[in-house]
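Tutorial, part two.
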Amino acid sequence: TMRKYINLILVLAIAGTVISSILLFQHYFPETDIGFLSCSNGMINRCVALSSSPYSTIMNIPVASFGILLYLLIAFMTLIADYAKGAYYILIPGATFILISFALISNLILGIIMIYTGHFCTLCISTYIINIAILILLVFYFKNHTKKEDVLTSIKNFFPPQSSDKKAFSALAFISVFFLSFAILTGSNIVKTRSGQDPLFEEKISSLVNDFYKEDPLTYDFPKSTLVLGPDNATLKIHVFSDFLCSACYKFYNHEKFLISKYKNKIQIIYYHYPLDAKCNPYMEGTLYDNSCIASQAIAEAAAKGFFKEYLYFHFADYRYISQNYSKEKALAILESAAKKYNIDSETQRNFKEALDSKNFNKEINDHIEAAEKLKIESTPTIFIAGRKIEGVPPRAFLDQVIEIELEP
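Running the prediction step on this input gives:
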């Protein structure tokens, strides 16, 4: 029976390690799509929003790193208790009880922060549930299998450690805690460096930002667009000319998910069509992305029917599948996925299909292409922030820093 509690705590500690590792990865690579585990809801990912906030680190170390350390320590101590038995069956669960109690106090503080920021991260909440479950198991363990006097006797006989086996255990425990901490913090720094968040990279970003602000802002009345992400009352509006089959535009979309999650209602991203397809773009000498005119038509019709955001999400979610040999059939498959997820009614779906089959090209696409020609746009994405032009996909950290500057009071 005692073994049952030990095994359950071990399983929970392993689960906590896995979830904390995902949170750490997401902290440094927020643009990475890791499916349902990223706890995303369309464009908004609350875990990313929380992990990019000032509350996600302690002494510049991600909170997730401390979570990994906690669960590995619990797993390590649980294995020792199971192997050594005897007094260790009382001492180690006691130490685990103290660790998990401190963890739950931290969880309470972090929970208050989630309520304050409005970012309810399901992955974070799952670690809180794991901690509560471990605490409950420990309470039942002590209640059903130990007596108060046994606990006091075990502590009295162990401290200070006098026998060789107790001294060996104490030394091993100290060394293990030290090396586990060292390994996790070192690993965290390696991931940080791989993500580009190192001093040299930050210096490069600062240089790019300085160069960006040396350019004079452009004064231009952008044409009307129905391709809008974010509220109309957003403080900062970002204009993006895009080909919806362009690989660089897909990369920028992944940056967008991070930016929209982090800045929530403070920014608005306005898309403009610029298909790199000579079939509908008279300013293209040749076609770079075959059938990107159809992709633009599908996106435009989704926006006209009121589900641009939902359609765009599934369009880019299936990008690796649709980027080769795009067709109307693939556009309709995306519609089907969006309709299931967001309950798009059958009449709206039928109108979308009829518009896609029609030979009448959406006028908004032509307006955007003409605007792009006046702005001398030749590549996608081309981004305008505060009137300043960016060609191609800049580093996410650059966009983040520029937005921070533009949102300053």
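Residues 34-41 have pLDDT under 50 and may be disordered. In part three we will examine how such features are distributed along the chain.
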